[in-house]
Amino acid sequence: MLKYTIKKILSMIPMILIITFIIYGLLELTPGDPISYLMDPESLARLSDAQIEEMREAYGLNGPFVVRYFNWLFRLLQGDFGYSISSGVPVIDIIKTGLPATLELAVASLIISTILGSILGVVSAIYKGTIGDNVLTVFGMIGVSIPQFFFGIVAILVFALNLEWLPVGGRTDPSVTGFFDRLEYIVLPSLVMGLSMTAGVMRYARSSMLDTMNKEYIKTARSKGLAEWRVNLLHGFRVSLTPVVVLIGFRLPTLVAGSVVIETVFQWPGIGNAFSTAVRAQNYNLVMMLALIFVVMTLFASTLVDIVTAAIDPRVKLEN
Amino acid sequence: MATKASIRRMNNKFDKIRQQEEAGLLKNKKQGNRTLRKLLKNQLAVTGAIIFLIILLACIFAPILTPYSPKAVDMGNILSGPTKEHWLGTDKIGRDVFSRILYGGRMSIAIGFGSALGCALIGIILGCYAGYKGGIIDSIFVRISEVFMSIPRLILVMMLAAIMGQSAGNIVLIFVLSGWGSSFRMVRSKVLSIREEEYVQSLEVFGLSTPIICYKHILPNALSPTIVNVTLSTAMFILDEAALSFLGLGVPLEVPTWGNILNAAQDLFTLQNNWWLWLPTGIVVSLFVMSINFIGDGIRDTADPTQI
Lengths: 320, 308
Hints:
The structure holds two protein chains of two kinds.
Chain A: H1 2-29, H2 35-38, H3 41-46, H4 49-58, H5 65-77, H6 91-126, H7 131-145, H8 148-162, H9 179-213, H10 216-223, H11 228-265, H12 271-280, H13 284-312, H14 314-319
Chain B: H1 4-22, H2 26-30, H3 34-41, H4 43-60, H5 62-65, H6 97-133, H7 135-150, H8 153-164, H9 168-194, H10 198-206, H11 210-222, H12 224-246, H13 258-262, H14 268-273, H15 279-303
Helix pairs in contact in B: 3-15, 4-6, 4-15, 6-7, 6-9, 6-11, 6-12, 7-9, 8-9, 9-11, 9-12, 12-15
């Protein structure tokens, strides 16, 4: 297990190197002088042309591509992500304020979709072929077909504008207000994001539960005379849960895409919202840095999912 | 479990079938494509196909169905609700919403289908060759596709959109760049299993060239999952285009696409007061994507021999 974990973690390193290399290459392709986002804009404005040239030398911008890349990577490792050219704020500050908001929303919607999706999936697998199962299947299909943002704006219209139960969007400052004041802001975006991911989880949980229910040990459990709910829940559900953990891994890209779209729709001040604003403003350095954060986070999360899956799957343990 | 009654019922049933067979009645039934028959039995797939055809034909025959051009500005008639002249009202600069939905559909469907086809084409060409050849070429392409697939698609798409600029052509290019990996993987894994079959080995013994074995003899047997993939990725790309354009990052706003029409709903006032600007479009997009998903699922179920 430990060997597997170390191997998995080590295998991320070449991947991160390749991805940072690509992102730096793309960044070099964008128009604009790199010095404009590498330095604090205020001090940059005070410099003369000769001094700027000196700074350029100091940042290693006159060297060949590979040297420039490693300089840049080295600064990244020290937490220097450069500056946003539109606001002059260091990118690291934007990430520091945005990331907690993004994670809050992502975790909330992951919890909602996992609980709802696996319960509905298991229920529709147990009652396979009944009207309820068919209705759930069709609903699941509708769920994956409605554009996320459309679902979001309809939710805003109904619950925020017409019924006025919940705020239209935004997020209060977490340090100032209490839990319940903050709750009303997260309810709508996390429900929209969670529900739109539920369909996928449900379909997966259903087929994996069906798979499990055909296994020999389920028949054994049933023939022992165990109560039906015990067979379904303790023997079936527990094992079919393994792929549901894998499904968290599958949902990561959706989660990232969702955080960009939903955060923009609900004006949620996370890095997804910052990302779409930066793309629109062609604020290239910020775009690339936030993309890098998203990619690295996805990579870490999927590695973690791999490790957790290996840890809870009894068949992996047997191999050791 | 089988009781005597049920056995008797089964026996009767088989007797009947045998009688019909002897009388030559079953022959007509057995003709026709078995897969097609199975597909037609799938109610969801048939419903999907009907919705799909209605929307597709309406978009293709847009000039017949609506007299208005989707770009014709009518300042004397702005933001009017649905009337007899304008079935779904007009937008902020007096353009007919119904005709914008139809013409927008042409663009959105073309982008979605074009991108899906592009991905499949690249996936087939590379996947078939890499899967058959193996070795270093194979591992290079697998590595590249891994890198592409490890970047969340929407992030990659938006990154490329920021660099390449906005146009319908660029969007297709970006979608193909970001999506070819999965079809490549699919074709490759199928080819990997086919290449071990005896007929391939005998072709090799006959001394046929690699491209001929690859694309003429292996490819046809590896195509079926790709067809399902094309339908499902068309749906996915239509959704992506809508989301991108809704965020203002997709096709330039003056070109009508479903996403661009929905872009109007970003304004909360429009959202609350001018439902005809966004609600019908949203419903059409959802219906269309849903119909494709139903068809794709139907094809997958029928093509899978393990499913009854």
